[in-house]
Structure to design on (303 residues):
């Protein structure tokens, strides 16, 4: 079997916040009625996390479920587990209008973490039309938006740490945006 | 800047996160329609100054289409509502007529 590599192979940059490509991540698009008992059961039993509320992401270790739209969830698991989880989710969705697809190789994941010098919130606030204040964007929140010209989704994994997902083909563009935004000396100091 | 609340994800999305989709509540004329009705469906749009009901898509977000009621002269937003409806809901109509007592959905559809 071919040796899978992530888009930018773990590249990182240090500024007032650090930007790191997180490497391979198993990502599964799960579409279906969020209120259907079989879908909710599949998320809790097979993925092992709680069903996320609107615009939130639930996590348990390396596994997570993020709310993407009224009929879509993003399931995150270790890369090697994705095919097996897809097979089990597909079996659980048997008979209902739903879909589980392995999207792992179509995406790139970045971590943006603040340092003593500045906040990761500021890196994102410069690029996305989102209120990044601590009061508005709390831990556990997850949001799809745009980062300059690229469609992305990001969530707060800590007080000043964010996980950002984009299309693999836009990974270099997004990395350049984030590292430019995090350049030392360019912090505004709002957060 | 135009800010609309997406009725699906509850985000107060600003304009760059959205995509405009033109007039809302257009009835599709299809097989069996005469030429005049089909032409009106394709080309004739309500275009008065003031209150408009529009389709918007939360394109850099949940990706869903929704409807918005707003005034093109004052830029006031009267509300947004899901796209799975043929006519504007009562609370949207009430919000509009509170400011524009003469406005009616039927009158707006025929306005040019």
């Amino acid at each position: 079997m071919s040796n899978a590599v992530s888009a930018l192979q773990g590249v990182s940059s240090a500024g007032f916040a650090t930007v790191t490509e997180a490497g391979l991540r198993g990502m599964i698009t799960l579409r279906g009625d969020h209120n259907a008992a079989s879908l909710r059961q599949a998320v809790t039993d097979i993925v092992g996390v709680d069903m996320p509320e609107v615009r939130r992401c639930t996590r348990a270790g390396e596994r997570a479920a993020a709310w993407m739209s009224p009929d879509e969830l993003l399931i995150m698991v270790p890369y090697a587990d994705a095919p097996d989880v897809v097979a089990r989710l597909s079996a659980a969705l048997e008979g209902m209008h739903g879909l589980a697809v392995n999207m792992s190789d179509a995406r790139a994941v970045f971590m943006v973490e603040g340092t003593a010098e500045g906040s990761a919130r500021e890196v994102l606030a410069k690029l996305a039309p989102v209120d990044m204040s601590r009061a508005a964007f709390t831990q556990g929140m997850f949001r799809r938006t745009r980062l300059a010209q690229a469609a992305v989704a990001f969530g707060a994994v800590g007080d000043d740490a964010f996980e950002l997902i984009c299309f693999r083909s836009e990974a270099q563009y997004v990395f350049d945006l984030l590292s430019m935004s995090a350049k030392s000396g360019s912090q505004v100091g709002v957060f | 800047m135009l800010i609309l609340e997406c009725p699906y994800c509850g985000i107060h999305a600003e304009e760059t996160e959205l995509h405009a989709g033109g007039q809302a509540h257009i009835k599709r004329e299809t097989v069996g329609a005469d030429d005049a009705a089909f032409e009106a469906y394709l080309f004739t749009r309500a275009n008065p100054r003031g209150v408009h009901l529009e389709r918007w898509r939360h394109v850099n977000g949940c990706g869903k289409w929704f409807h918005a009621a707003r005034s093109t002269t004052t830029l006031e937003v009267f509300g947004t509502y899901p796209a799975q409806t043929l006519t504007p809901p009562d609370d949207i109509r009430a919000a509009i007529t509170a400011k524009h007592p003469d406005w009616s959905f039927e009158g707006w559809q025929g306005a040019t």
Summary: The beta strands of chain B are 3-5, 12-14, 19-23, 51-57, 65-71, 77-82.
